[in-house]
Amino acid sequence: MENKIKIGISQGDINGIGYEVILKTLEDNRILDMCVPIVYGSPKVAAYHRKVLDLSVNLNLINSAAEANDKRANIINCNSDEIKVEISQSTEAAGTAAFQALEKAAADLKAGAIDALVTAPINKKNIQSEQFSFPGHTEYLEQTFGSKGDALMLLVSDKLRIAVATGHLPIAKVAQTLTKELIFNKIRILNESLKKDFGISRPRIAVLGLNPHSGDQGVIGKEEIEIIKPAITEALENEIICVGPLPADGFFGSDEYNKYDAILAMYHDQGLIPFKTLSMDSGVNFTAGLGVVRTSPDHGTAYDIAGQNRASENSFRQALYAAIDIVKNRRYGN
User: Residue 180: is it exposed, middle or buried by C-beta count within 10 angstroms (0-12/13-18/19+)?
Assistant: First the structure.
């Protein structure tokens, strides 16, 4: 029998809801029929959250992914035993612990010791250091596993898939960052991912405009005419089925989004606000365009409810399922 898929799980911020959603997901033993979970983190921190939340799941301590028990949920210690949990607080120690876990998991992913990575939420401020100077996981993984421009943030649920042409970027820099080449490249990556990772043979992609009303034929901005439309034309010439640029408000205000396999938004909030409105509890963030598989829940550290047993694990569970499905699609095709 073929070995089960090994899914690495990085602990994220130890003072947020990361361990709560991880442990609640792993409490369901049916997960073990689908994969071998390997948490990269701290047994001490895991035990703390397990006790606070009164959960029954036990993690099998191992030294390397090669030692993982395929009938258990496993954990690799990446942190100092002096680590301290301070629930709901953003601390330098929590940032260090999050990076140590992510770095070890990424190294194992690169080495092929695990088949995919599911990342629990980090605090993008306290994780900053000489080793991590990125606005988020996506950019760190892009540098680790590819080069600039290779990665695409793709939000996925059973209702819709939304990618963003520009990710963690100040809104003041969006318009100057968008180019025909960038948008065409994101359309191309999205099209390839829909085929390879989701098994869609002829994807239909909707491309949103940047300005209100998609610029109203140049009255409210010319990016649609000068940048976005030429990128769509080039995509069509490369036999990619895509439509646009479409006004974002009307597109999401109607049922138009249901007619496409995926949507390319021009900037973070243009895509993530409607996505989270429609799919907050079940959404998954997938980093498309890389040679490795990485997913995450579509929420943050949620300090406001950390340690209170109020966090829903559904988005994290869906991220785990998505990682398994994508690995299978890449291995076996349709």
Answer: middle
Q: Is 183 exposed, middle or buried (0-12, 13-18, 19+ CB in 10 A)?
A: buried
Summarised one tens digit per residue, pLDDT across range 94-139 is 999 999 999 999 999 999 999 999 999 999 999 999 989 998 899 9
The number of beta carbons lying within 10 Å of the beta carbon of residue 69 is 12
pLDDT digits (tens, 9 = 90+) for 156-189: 998 899 999 998 899 999 999 999 999 999 999 9
The pTM assigned to this predicted structure is 0.93
Contact assessment for residue 271 and residue 265, using Cβ atoms and an 8 Å cutoff: yes
CB atoms inside a 10 Å sphere around CB 218 = 12
Q: What is the DSSP letter of 309?
A: T
Between the two ends of the chain, the Cα-to-Cα distance in Å is 21
